[in-house]
Amino acid sequence: MDGMMHMLVTRPLPDAQATAERLAALGIASTLAPLMSRQTLAANLPPAQGFAAIAITSTNALRALADLNALSQLLDIPVFAVGDRTAHEARQLGFAEVEAAEGTLDSLVTRIALARLAGPVFYPAGRHLSGDLAGALAPHGLMVVTSPVYEMVAETGLDPDVATGLAQGAFGATLLYSRRTAEIFCALAAPILPDSRRRDRPMLCLSENVAAPLLENRFSRVLLADHPSEEAMMALALAFAREQTGP
User: Taking every annotated instance into account, which residue ranges of this chain make up the domain Tetrapyrrole biosynthesis uroporphyrinogen III synthase (predicted)?
Assistant: First the structure.
């Protein structure tokens, strides 16, 4: 490596590739180590009629709906997306009415509650839910019909080159975008990194929720994005790289 900052990207494909390209544009090299892969589930979806809105908390849900050939019947229903990137993907797929929250489940709940919907909410989700949308909207008198449409399957081991790089401190930082990814990373990195080595490994995290498993596993050099978005993660990566290598 030639003095250029080199980072480890742990998010699933195709998002990992998009992140690598954005890092490259900032002059940061990267290695992809997706810790999960998406599998579309054979979902038995409810009829679209009668839903007042669709809640989307991940672009993976949209990709799964496309895999299931379910988009055409849903495109006229208003979409509430968790953040800008998910909203952009929904518009690209042809949804006519899309509103973006601020990147967190709480902001999505608030946005949906303020819309004063006249019917139930359809929530195509992952098998492993990171938050309880239905429970959060129940006090607002809203019924949520949750359909698991995809599963993020955890990797059971690290690529040997990635494992060696981690052990040798070859990566200037590791980028983590979800709590479950952080949990998987901790499990797979534990045999490679003793506690004493974890303390000096920089971890760049999307949010406090993502960082929690790292702190529990004695990774103490944890930096948080200012906002749960890819833009904020890129700003964090660039600021960190400049701090380490100079402008």
Answer: 18-234
